[in-house]
Amino acid sequence: MTRAIGASGDQGRLHGLDAVRGYALLLGIVFHATMSFIPGPQIWVVEDTHRSLFLSGVFFVSHIFRMATFFLIAGFFAHMVVGKRGVKAFVKDRAKRILVPLVVGWPILIVAIIAASAYGGYVMTGHIPKPPPPAAHAPPLAFPLTHLWFLYLLLWLYAATLALRAGVARLDPAGRLATAADRLVKGVVENRAGVLVLALPTALALNSFAPWALWGGVPAPDSSLIPNPPAVVAFFSAFGFGWLLHRQPGLLQTWTRRWVFNLTASVVLTAVLIAWIGLTPNAGPHTPGPERLGYAMTYALAIWTWTFAVIGLALRFLSKESPARRYIADSSYWLYLIHLPIVMVLQALVVKLDWPAEVKILVVLGAAFPLMFASYQLLVRHSFIGAILNGRRAPKPARAAPAALRLEPAE
After folding, report:
1. Is 367 a residue whose pLDDT tops 60?
2. Other CB atoms within 10 Å distance of the CB of residue 320
3. How far apart, in whole angstroms, are the C-alpha atoms of residue 97 and residue 99?
4. How confident is the model at residue 127, as a pLDDT?
5. Angle 259-235-179 from CA coordinates, rounded to 5°
6. What is the pLDDT of residues 72-111, one digit of tens each?
């Protein structure tokens, strides 16, 4: 969605960050595929009879960091594009690549999701389920954004960041605030305890949000046009930090050097969370107090240490150019947009098979990914859709001229 475009062509493209962005979106597909196999209360439209604590763990761990990592990289690349092309070009580009897919894609996807949900209900019960009654305590401006909430939130983050940037430039023409922000970012990245500064706002937002179900982490802002406070704080923090980080891109090397430390910290923190609350979905302690705040702080620290770790790992091991990873990064946006109804139908197709959940999800993903990659190659990559989503249309490979038409070299 956001390309790190150098001064000319793709010179200076940050392949490691491209890989993280693409894999974070693909991890979201795996995340949704696990949801029919999670033990405990039903949290998904397709409820499989075979459940798996392992897949519940995949859900729990991936949910900690995948979206925060995505938004940090989105902020990093957004600052890059504004710096290279200017605000007007940036706004035009994001209107085409974010607003248009949201406005055009949402009606199509909501119909497909409703149809997939009806099919899943029919497979499980033998009849098409009736629409659920209106929620008793619906949020203000309730709206089913579904998994496209990330596009909606990105638009808000872009607008808020550009407005804040303009305000700071007017109030502080000498740049003292920018210098102070640079010092703060540098200190947070270089000091191992700096992660506490980033984690604290998210922890306080989670702890103070009365409906927060602890096991579910940061609640997705997918059901209202007014994003919930924890999502706003967590994802704006990530986006804003990525934006400021691009002012000093050399700081990324700190995460590259410390990937072992950050990965170890994230695994330890995750183990503490699982020991604390378990792998079966539950709301956890709703009563404000030290336990709830402690869990919120541990979760927020896990968000940031995982984010540091996966970015450091990518920069360490995936920094070289790779046509395969480039293809995955380019296609990941399309795959994530279209995946949900496809995954739901495939979950419904395997729901009555007497197979272990781990085998079923391999079947679901093994069918979903080839279908989606094929649709990208055939319908998107070389078409106007690819030009909208990726900012450019990939050229079709040149065909070799027929033998009869080839010019023979003069003797």
Report:
1. yes
2. 8
3. 6
4. 81
5. 75
6. 999 999 999 999 999 999 999 999 999 999 999 999 999 9
Rounded to an integer, what is the distance from CA 364 to the centroid of its chain?
20
- DSSP annotation string for 377-389: IIIITTSHHHHHH
CA triple 243-247-251, angle to 5 deg: 100
Residue 115 forms part of a structural domain: yes
* Residue 405 predicted with pLDDT over 90: no
C-alpha closest to that of 69 among 261, 260, 315, 250: 315
**Residues pairing with 230 in the sheet:** none
- Cβ neighbour number for residue 156 with a 10 Å cutoff: 16
In a domain, 299, yes or no: yes
Q: What is the pLDDT of residues 168-215, one digit of tens each?
A: 999 998 989 999 999 999 999 999 999 999 999 999 999 999 889 999
Residue 138, C-beta contacts closer than 8 angstroms, at least 6 positions apart: none
- Alpha-carbon distance of 302 to 408, in angstroms, equals 64
Q: Where are the alpha helices (DSSP H) in 222-258?
A: 229-245, 252-257
Domain count, the chain: 1
Instruction: Show Cβ contacts of residue 7 under 8 Å, excluding neighbours closer than 6 positions.
Output: 84
Would 86 be classed as within a structural domain?
yes
Residue type, 104: V
Position 400 confidence tier, pLDDT thresholds 50, 70, 90: low
Distance CA 61, CA 246 (A): 27
d(CA 380, CA 331): 9
Can you give the pLDDT at residue 401? 52
The predicted model gives 124-129 an average pLDDT of 81
CA 182 to each of CA 37, 178, 248, 304: distance values in angstroms, whole numbers, following the listed order: 45, 6, 8, 19
- Greater confidence, 156 or 404? 156
Share above pLDDT 90 across residues of the chain, in percent, rounded to a whole number: 79
324 is in which domain, residue-wise? 16-392
Look-up: residue for tokens 């070299």?
409
Q: Is residue 187 part of a domain?
A: yes
Q: What is the pLDDT of residue 317?
A: 93
